Amino acid sequence: MRVAVVGMGAAGIQAARILEAKGHSLELFDARDRVGGRLHTIESEGLVYDAGGEWIDADHKRALELVADLGGRLYSRQESEPYTFALQGEMRKEGAEWEEAKSDLQSLEAWAREQVASLATAADPDATQHAGKSVADAISEVCRSPLGRLLATAIYRSDEGEDLDRVGLQEWLLGFGNYVHREGLESSAFRVEGGMGALIRRAADTLESPFTPNARLLAVAQREHSVRLHFDGLTVDAGACILTMPPPQVACVSFDPPLPNPQLDAIRSMPMSRTIKIMLAFREPFWEQSGWSGFLHTDSPVQQTWTAPTSPTPVLICYVCGNNCDFWRRQSDPVGTAVEMIEATFPGAKRNFMKGNFHDWVADEWSRGGFCYLPPGYMNRHLANIPLRHGRVVFAGDHTATWKGFIEGALESAERAARDVSSLPA
Ligand SMILES: Cc1cc2nc3c(=O)[nH]c(=O)nc-3n(C[C@H](O)[C@H](O)[C@H](O)COP(=O)(O)OP(=O)(O)OC[C@H]3O[C@@H](n4cnc5c(N)ncnc54)[C@H](O)[C@@H]3O)c2cc1C
């Protein structure tokens, strides 16, 4: 069957790889002028870093298989790269306050594991005590010390890409269920040599089907055995299509026949995280001189930093989520401000600074944010209605998967979408 795949991010590329291998005839489209979507490695003048998705968890089997398949080398985050916590410019590492905070983190994790077990057995999810609550509520209830609350917020906000008062507790526990068998450093365990965006480009290079960039899908009309896709200035007929764009873009496409209201509501009610990355390049990895690994959680608007292990030029990535994104978007020189803030805790930043880049995913037209998260109440009202298939239109993308918000979810959705298309009558 002739299949149109719209969106050449990880989900679209992987779905196309599977369907090509099965002998389908494909046409590939993306609104951007490049493939990769939210996987985007910047390579220029001695710099190599990921402006979008970057880390692979140790149990993200599909992502690890893709790396093995395409011959990428994995860099693991070592125990020797612990996060430093800096509050009001001061590093917090030891003492009674720190021990109390660590114990809070353990209590929170133990509590979440218990809740996951009880959620799995709850007959009626509406009856659970967590409905309508946020992750911030749980942190306030379970963590006793102010530092513990701060650390828990920093760690889980980073995973969700958003402030935790916006993230549903029941919904977060659903995702936490994926983690319960984990031990140790399994989250954000690996990065790929040359970057995740470069890897997905190599995956796209294995495809033989024609690709049309700068093709924004506007409408899909379907008949019994075919679909007609209307792009800006281009009309395409196919036997079926896979749409992989993130929820805000799905909501902009017009469907004939229309998407049923519950499915449309599920898409419209799924927000994208406010996520920004700021890249700072330095002459020397000055942080090493002060014994700092470059990995930081802080209460300043910088929020979190890490290094880019495969960049020839030393790089710090600042990863900012939630309300703090507004702070950075108001700055006339966000890169300069970030260097000043890092200098306040780790002297040497200003002296060594070379150049920087600001990657604002909130302003990205084709994603409107970093990745999806589920707000309070979403699970009971919308989760079951996230559209997976509408006649001969099959939906993919990380938001349709179990691993929402992850590269692993995009790949998971590709496998399901390829199965769905293959099961359609020709
Ligand atoms: C800053 C940031 C950090 C992240 N960090 C991590 C991480 O460390 N680990 C991790 O696992 N995940 C991370 N993620 C999430 C990860 O990048 C995504 O889950 C994954 O890349 C999504 O792939 P996708 O194919 O589902 O969607 P996308 O990559 O968004 O692909 C969808 C494609 O559809 C195209 N499109 C949109 N609208 C239209 C339209 N109307 N017509 C035609 N084409 C359209 C887009 O241009 C895009 O190429 C991060 C994301 C961001 C932004």
Q: Can you offer a commentary on this structure?
A:
The chain is an alpha/beta fold and 426 residues long. It has three domains: 2-38 and 196-271 and 373-422, FAD/NAD(P)-binding domain (3-Layer(bba) Sandwich), CATH 3.50.50; 41-60 and 67-79 and 189-194 and 272-363, Polyamine Oxidase, Chain A, domain 2 (Alpha-Beta Complex); 93-179, Orthogonal Bundle (Guanine Nucleotide Dissociation Inhibitor, domain 1). It has 14 helices and 21 strands. The strands form five sheets. Strands 7-6-16-17-18-15-19 form a seven-stranded mixed β-sheet, with helices on both faces. A six-stranded mixed β-sheet has the order 9-2-1-13-21-20, with helices on one face. Strands 12-11-10-14 form a four-stranded mixed β-sheet, with no helix packed on it. A hairpin with a 5-residue loop joins strand 16 (296-298) and strand 17. It is globular. The chain binds flavin-adenine dinucleotide. The site of flavin-adenine dinucleotide has 40 residues, from helix 1, strand 15 and helix 14. Flavin-adenine dinucleotide (FAD) is lined by residues 6-12, 29-32, 37-39, 52-55, 215-217, 244-246, 249, 275, 277, 361, 366-367, 370-371, 397-398, 405-410.
**How large a portion of the residues is in β-strands, by DSSP E?**
15-25%
Q: For the terminal residues, how far apart are their CA atoms?
A: 6 Å
What strand line-up does the widest sheet have? Answer: 7-6-16-17-18-15-19
State the assembly state of the protein chains. single chain
As a whole number of angstroms, the C-alpha radius of gyration is 22 Å
- Total strands: 21
Overall pLDDT confidence: 93
Question: Tell me, what is the CATH class of the largest domain?
Answer: Alpha Beta
